[in-house]
TrEMBL record:
InterPro entries to which the protein is assigned, alphabetical: Falgellar_hook_FlgE_sf, Flag_bb_rod_N, Flagellar_FlgE/F/G, Flg_bb/hook_C_dom, FlgE/F/G-like, LlgE_F_G-like_D1
Origin species: Ramlibacter tataouinensis
Primary site of residence: other
Family: Belongs to the flagella basal body rod proteins family.
GO CC term (a single one): bacterial-type flagellum hook
Function comment: A flexible structure which links the flagellar filament to the drive apparatus in the basal body.
Protein name as annotated: Flagellar hook protein FlgE
Keyword Heme on entry: no
Positions of the Flagellar hook protein FlgE/F/G-like D1 domain: 89-144
Superkingdom in the source lineage: Bacteria
Biological processes annotated in GO: bacterial-type flagellum-dependent swarming motility
Record's keyword terms, sorted: Bacterial flagellum, Cell projection, Cilium, Flagellum
UniProt entry tagged with the keyword Metal-binding: no
Span of domain Flagellar basal-body/hook protein C-terminal: 347-391
Amino acid sequence: MLNSIYIGMSGLQGYSQGLRVIANNTANLNTPGFKGSNLQFADMFYSNNQAQAGASGMMQVGYGLNTAGTVLNFQQGELRQTGNSLDLAVDGQGLFTVKDANGNLHYTRAGQFSFNTEGVLVNRVDGSKVMGMDKNGQLQEITLSGASTLAGKATTTVKFNGNLSSTATEQTISAVKVIDSVGGEHLLTVKLTNDGATTPGHWTVQVLDGTTTVGSGSIQFSGGRPDPANSKVNVTYTPTGLAALPLTFDFSTDVTSFASGNLSTLAFASQDGFVPGALTGVSFDGSGTLVMAYSNGQTVKGAQLALGRFDSLDAVVAAGNNQFDATNTLAWHMGVSGANGFGSVRAGMVELSNVDLSQEFSDLVIMQRGYQASSQVISTANEMLQELFQMKSK
């Protein structure tokens, strides 16, 4: 009967641990990136006693309930929109990699990040640094250092589109914008003169800055299409007080020359320069690459987020603060979004806890029933002992 009490106690202890696991899962129902766990139960050792005389076999008597540890459930949780471009989630396999103040690496599915005062991407929960991966596969910090402004780029190519009427005598295109070497804007004029009277399809191109001629050249059309060998005009423009600026005026694509009376639709289309700009926003694309947007309309890509994944649940353990640690680095793999089995990064979203509340409540009832049954076993064994003591006293 004493053994029965010990067995009942093992049940109380085991179901208490099970209740604690369920309580932890339920309490973290709304914790981003939380992964629930399940307690594993096992029966204890057995004693083998010889059966009574005349009976065959052995009589095995167990010694109660044992707990064999917990197993994490890494099923993906729901991805919920947050509207914050620095809230990130992994759709598929992979965990974000962070480094704490002591240089230790941890992993998390809760991508709640922000840039600190030093411009370094950190985890908002504990301030650990979010790691990226360079082209050589080495871990690095993701930082905005030196990226608060973007230097301007001088124009090299100016493109046009539309139809240049082959029956018109001339065409003037004004407000052709170019950017100089220090980011200044200049509006040039391009004047085209039809030389068809002497050379069919031939046009003289003159570039002017106000009334000053910057340079000139010619283009040639054949069958209404630009001749690839004669569809660009190269000039050198020298703004006042600045370095010379080589420019190519490109009529090779999206330009035609068909008869349309004196009406031409040829116009300035684009140029490849831009003025200096200030950083206006940051986000991450589907590949986990930092995208920096500037006030001049330009975007620049930065570092790519480093992700980690494991081969076996035995290689990972929960560490708190929505983070996990590697217990066997040989079973871990590092990589980036969308490659080698890693999932895609979703910006503006966060992964919720994967706890199934209805399942937890079902397990809670089972634990309660088991605890009550073990308690009843102890009470019954105690009553039997009391009866035995009373018999002895008589």
